[in-house]
# Entry
Amino acid sequence: MTPDLVTFLRPLLRAEASAEAYATGAEPGDLEQAVWLRLLERLRADDPPRDPHRWLRSAVRTEARRTRRTARAEQPYGTEPAGAAEHEPEHLALTAARHRALRDAVRRLPGRCPRLLEALLSPKDLTYREIAGELGISQGSLGPERSRCLGCLRRLLTPEVAAR
# Structure
């Protein structure tokens, strides 16, 4: 594209893009950029417009219609996409901090509670039978013992949660 053509067309393109942008909901600069790109593509194909002013007005209107159609077809998300926040660094750091706090509290529990809750929180997803075998207690006493341990954990964490 010759510098003369750019200098020659810039004021007209800026005015046309500003006039059309409001109706489309687009930024005038976006329309300008799209039209400059179309002109570059046309010049690359060795097909310069015979009447640059007329071509430019037509190109701006064409881009404005395309922008309007695109905007009508787009639907905003009601909420963030599922799982989007789960992979953000802040969310990952807060989740890791909560897990550390929970594991620290579990280690401070009395008796068999730390081993029992560690087994329940294990990524191996152990069954009650496997946990009972590992701890050397009957499978029937796991439920009541788990309830007592969770009660202790709740009492232990309540002051920490309230302090935050």
About this structure: The radius of gyration is 33 Å.
